[in-house]
Write a structure and sequence with these properties.
- By secondary structure, the chain is α+β, with helices and mostly antiparallel strands.
- The chain contains three helices and four strands.
- Helix content is 27%, strand content 26%.
- Strands 2-3-1-4 form a four-stranded antiparallel sheet.
Length: 104
Amino acid sequence: MEQIAFKMRLNPGQASLYKSRHDALWPELDKLLGEAGVRDYSIFLDPETHTLFAVLRRRSDHKMDDLPKHEVMKRWWKYMGDIMATNPDGSPVVVALEPMFHLE
């Protein structure tokens, strides 16, 4: 398993809505992420900067690069687009983070 981390930006005042939408994650999105090889996915919020920090594990043969092609992924992005920074295609603005330390 490979571990990756990235950050995104939440619009101010949207923390409760962001959390509630993720607490009710669509079953079809959960299934799609699992089929793409995503495991142990967590997202944290820095409330001072509105920065979302995500970390996940994925199989070495993951298919995360194919996620943007799926209709359920596009619908989720549209659903979330009103509360966070997005790209012109509706996907969240994601900045990859470099691993600096890990203790297991």
